[in-house]
What we know:
With 159 residues, this protein is mainly beta. It has a single domain (23-157), classed as Porin (Beta Barrel), CATH 2.40.160. It has one helix and eight strands, in the order H-E-E-E-E-E-E-E-E. The chain has one helix spanning 2-17; strands spanning 26-37, 40-54, 57-67, 73-83, 90-103, 110-124, 127-139, 146-157. An eight-stranded antiparallel sheet has the order 1-2-3-4-5-6-7-8, with no helix packed on it. Residues 4-17 have low confidence and may be disordered.
Amino acid sequence: xxxxxxxxxxxxxxxxxxxxxxxxxxxxxxxxxxxxxxxxxxxxxxxxxxxxxxxxxxxxxxxxxxxxxxxxxxxxxxxxxxxxxxxxxxxxxxxxxxxxxxxxxxxxxxxxxxxxxxxxxxxxxxxxxxxxxxxxxxxxxxxxxxxxxxxxxxxxxxx
Length: 159
């Protein structure tokens, strides 16, 4: 009986393995938080959608808005991420992204280019947790160009 149950569980998990990062899958993300910039406090809200154009390769678009003070700040992000399937549950990932930040008043818009690496771990048939590192290069006329790094953590769901 144990062998039958074990075999059944294995078959179910293998049949679910292709549901996470396969072509045609979509995932959505939403964020809400706070930030400080230009000496002001902001409420930050955003959304991102990604589409898997082929197995394990997603492209997306995201929006982030800084609300509650001036100058007004809005940011558009275009990410490209590849998830490498080393097992049914573990998917190291690497990606590139481009961000354009729109700033009102007398400030100039600027661009950010970046890379990200990390590990996604399946926590369900269509859900995962990711932890990684992001390196960003800011290309702005009003500030010194610079590299900056930070950790990232996400919970994702695919549909």
